[in-house]
Please model this.
Amino acid sequence: MDLNTPVGSFSKAYKMYAGRLSKLNIFKLEDFLFHIPFRYDDFSLVSQIGLVQAGETVTVRGKVEKIQNQYTRKWKSLQRGIVYDETGKIEVLWFNQPFIPKTIKEGDEISMSGKVDLDGNKLIMKSPDYEVIFQNQTIHTGRLVPIYPETKGISSKWLRRQVFKLLQEFPSIDDYLPKDLIKENGLMNLDEAVRKIHFPSSLNEAEEARERLSFDELFNLQLSSLVRKKQWEKEKIKKWEVEKHKEKVKKFIKTLSFELTNAQKNATREILKDLSLDSPMNRLLEGDVGSGKTIVATVAAYIAFLNGYQTAFMAPTEILANQHFNVISKLLSNLNVNVALFTGTTKSKDTKFDIAIGTHALIHKKVKFKNLGLIVIDEQQRFGVEQRGILRQKAKNPHLLTMTATPIPRTVALTLYGDLDLSILDEMPKGRKTIKTWVVPPSKRTGAYNWIEEKIVKGKDQVFIVCPFIEESESMVTVKAATKEFERLSKEVFPKLSLGLLHGKMKAKEKDEVLDTFRSGKTDILVSTPVVEVGIDIPNATIMMIEEAERFGLAQLHQLRGRVGRGGKESFCLLFTSSKNPVTLERLKSMEAIFSGAVLSEIDLKLRGPGQMYGTLQHGIPQLKVASFSDFDLIEKTKKEAEKVFAKLSEYPNLAKKIEEENLKEVSPD
Ligand code: ADP
Ligand code: MG
Model:
């Protein structure tokens, strides 16, 4: 057994937990060790019971004199106990944890950490952390106690015990970094760093450990990109004719009902340049929602067509695939380009297509490409490395264009995607108005509903209402909540209006119907789970209302907001929140004044502490475990070191292996 053992095959108990652990990105034993605490409870002050004072946060050790369950009149349970050592006694009280008298027995030697209170004139500890002392060691008390990112059914206490056991079982963790590198950068060795990040004897020590692990995280990312880039560039292909078809491309662009923005022109130029070279393109096109990425990709697909190659255009949802299909077939209808749609429900048997648009159904074996030359992946962060890989295998070294609306800050993009070339659409099409945005407290909810109704009745406006973000991937919990809200809104709030409901568990056909009805103007309000975030385009929708906005990341709110304001009408975004936390409110208020996705994502980056897990999936910016994307100095330093080491990577087989493994893993969290 080694640290690469998958958690599921390690023990029965772990097998049961495997699903939950995967939510924390813990798949193999080693991942426990690299599940990094985001803070520590300082329970290092150990005191004799006779010396503790009210108000102190301390750890005491003693014998249990008494422990029992009691029930209040309302059938809530209390656990009361008395603990003593040779200097005195202290009372202890827990609430609603009836299992405690089963884990702690009279006569046990226990350790408890927490705040000491006065109850009348007696000292008492309420809801302290506790553990039965085993082999004279404590894990959860009497030290700096690590607090981890948690998930439902996986507590810090549980994680702590697993980490502790693993560190005991594995006496040494091999260091894969070159010795010189460790020395020159004054780093702690890896084994020591892993032990100390979990169980430091001082915060200083924890900080030093963090420095080593941050270094590794950024260094590995950058070294991995260098390796990927080299592999990519090794492949040579036949050059495409671009110059020859320039006039046709220009003519096509002239047929559009609008002029391309300068940013679109630049990105198009960069892509056309890539396509004329003898190694495959690997480019990320990043642009805010509504910045017009689709048309840029369509130009690339048209060039592929003119060169006799097929294009595969993959989108993350059926809704989006349908929309792309409609838009792109219309754009290219007069040019003899054959566009086909492949989704879970529309299994086109067509093989004569020039452009295949679809969901991940495209990677299915049955979709046969004759001459695939270009792959476009929309909202790339939503696909796994594996899915992207399978699609690529359908061709021989195809050109790859990935697109994202996630405003990834430049530093982040360069660190994570150093192997990709980057084009940024940093300019909106002319005539877009800013979307008036307000944070709405509970006291103004009714007023807001009235205002919305008036807008609909008088202005024929249409409205999105987005239900709260409950969990990373949409399950029945989210669906139920949305359905309930839909019913409440239909019956109690807007009985005179027509409402539709959209959620991820509906069949594709139902979704289409709901969207078509909304698009045609027959429904006034579309209530939905956060799925609408991904690029749907409904020009007459002018109001976006978001429930429990504080649960979303700013960049994500910005993407949701981008669903309105697409037509010529004035548009609005209402962020409902009942939070009273000033930091949260300030964070949300930045939406009222800032309309650049990039700036909002920088703010998010600064304001969210590590370990805050909300909304990572839809936010789309991968989270670092230890390091920070705002640590520019370390990013620079590790970049230089990675370049140095890359030149002679073959001299360090352990590191090379580590990087290879790293490259097989997901880069993004979803
Ligand atoms: P996104 O970058 O979010 O994928 P889309 O490609 O869906 O954006 O474009 C959003 C809308 O803007 C579409 O209706 C598209 O036709 C329109 N559009 C794209 N480029 C321009 C432009 N240069 N001027 C005006 N409208 C444009
Ligand atoms: Mg799009």
